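User: I'm curious whether this sequence folds into something compact or stays loose and floppy. Could you predict its structure so I can see for myself?
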Amino acid sequence: MDPILTTSLIIFGLILALAGFVGCILPIIPGPPLGYIALLILSFAKNWEPFNVTFWVIMGGLTVLVTILDYIVPAAGAKKYGASKWGVWGSLIGLLVGFFVFPPFGMFVGGFVGAVAGELLAGRERGKALRAGWGAFVGNMVGMGLKLGLCGVMLYFYIKGIF
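Assistant: Here's the prediction. I'll summarize afterward.
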């Protein structure tokens, strides 16, 4: 392969890997899938030498798992802390509104406030509503931690694969 094309692909892959990291915080960008695509680009640029089939299966499985858990964990966190459907929906709506009002940190505040508001609208008492909001916040943090961890591992292997 042409050295200029190889270098261009490696740089493009690195940009995707870094965008994957950003995607761990911003919900619009799919973080782990971008990290996986970056690894694919690096492998293509390096004639499929840096990684073996076992690596691809494990990374692909982890990417799918973490992506699915990213949608399940926040709702499960809210549920674990006693949220009703109103609280879970309020948390999701609050995440979206918070993202657009004060990105990216508004997601966390919005998720919390949305869960609390949803619970209060459902007629729950203030203490239970605050507990549900806390559950949504904890669930969001766990989901983000999983994504950051996986993207960090992918970035490590990306940089290691370059050399």
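Summary: The chain has one domain: 3-162. Residues 126-162 form the longest helix (37 residues).
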